[in-house]
Design a protein that fits this description.
Oligomer: single chain
Bound molecules: heme C
Order of helices and strands: EEHHHHEHHHE
Shape: rod-shaped
Structural class: mainly alpha
Radius of gyration: 33 Å
CATH topology of the largest domain: Cytochrome Bc1 Complex, Chain D, domain 2
Largest sheet: 2 strands, antiparallel
Number of domains: 2
Mean pLDDT: 91
């Protein structure tokens, strides 16, 4: 290694020579520096946006959403409706959202937007007139109330089994299996 020869008319050189190769000590061009700085700023913003602030949808959320849609399709295709499948539906966002839509158009006038009742019964308390099981809720909505004087009509022809599962899923999403099992029932549950 030797010291480079410096021609006063040329830009300064780096203080080394390897195998006769010399290097100018140029300042990096502005376009290069700006690309570099912007890449750093972009990386910080990108990191913040996706991983800290949770703007936009992360890969994990994409997967979860796709899984929920798949589960919704599987649940909708179920031919058997029982306590367990109704609880599953009550934990599926798609099902509950559709049920909420039905509730807010069809049931809200008597049961209230907070589900606390009015003309109809409170659906979020710990007392059930016709049974504290998902199937009894499903049955009373499907067939109407067995009590024909204070009763509620059947919603079968208007909503069909799918609409009823959705609206029941929405009602159940306000409860948990444990809480509901310990709730009071005024009559023997009409659905098992
Ligand atoms: C016209 C008013 C009215 C509408 C609309 C209505 N209900 Fe009711 N609902 C009632 C009444 C009244 C009762 C109480 C029936 C009884 O005393 O047997 C009741 C009872 C119920 C029960 C039984 C609660 C229990 O404690 O066992 C459920 C569940 C229910 N309704 C759900 C629904 C759903 C879901 C919808 C919408 C699809 C709906 N209701 C629409 C008036 C209504």
């Amino acid at each position: 290694m030797s010291t480079p020869t410096q021609d006063p008319n040329e830009p300064p050189k780096r203080p080394h020579v390897y195998d006769g190769i010399e290097e100018y000590d140029n300042r990096l061009p502005n376009w290069w520096l700006w690309t570099f700085y912007l890449a750093i700023i972009f990386a910080v913003l990108y990191w913040f946006t996706w991983y800290s602030a949770h703007y936009g949808t992360s890969n994990e959320e994409h997967v979860n959403k796709a899984m929920a849609q798949l589960e919704e399709a599987q649940l909708a295709a179920l031919s058997e409706i029982n306590n367990e499948t109704l609880w599953q539906m009550s934990q599926n966002d798609g099902f509950v959202a559709k049920g909420e839509e039905i509730f807010m158009s069809t049931c809200v006038s008597c049961h209230g937007a907070d589900l606390k009742g009015g003309i109809g019964l409170n659906l979020v308390d710990h007392e059930w007139k016709w049974g504290n099981t998902p199937m009894s809720v499903f049955t009373v909505v499907t067939n109407g109330s067995p009590d024909k004087t204070s009763g509620m009509q059947s919603w079968k022809s208007q909503l069909g089994p799918e609409g009823i599962s959705q609206v029941v899923a929405f009602v159940l999403s306000h409860h948990t299996p444990e809480e509901m099992a310990s709730a009071t029932t005024l009559n023997t549950p009409i659905g098992q």
